[in-house]
Amino acid sequence: MKKLASFVKERRKEAGMTQEEFAERSGIALTVIRKIEQGKTNLNLDKVNLVLRMFGHELAPVNSKTLNDETSRDIL
Fold this sequence. Notes:
Elements lengths: L1 H13 L4 H8 L3 H8 L7 H9 L10 H12 L1
Helix pairs in contact: 2-3
C-alpha cells in the first residue's frame, strides 16, 4: 500500500493540486483521498481505481510469480 500511497501523492502534487482540489476534481470523498495517501489497507478497489484513472492508471490483479520473475530480471 505504501507504493500506492506514494504514487497518488506524488502525482497529485505534480498536478499542483491539494487533496481538497483533487477530491473535488476526481469526484471522490476527501476522506478516501486521505486514506489512500496515508497507506491505509482497508480501501474500496473501485474508489482506488477512480483515483488512479485520473493519472491514466488502473489497479489490476497480477500473477505474483510473473511479477517476481520480472523483478529478478531487473535486479540482475
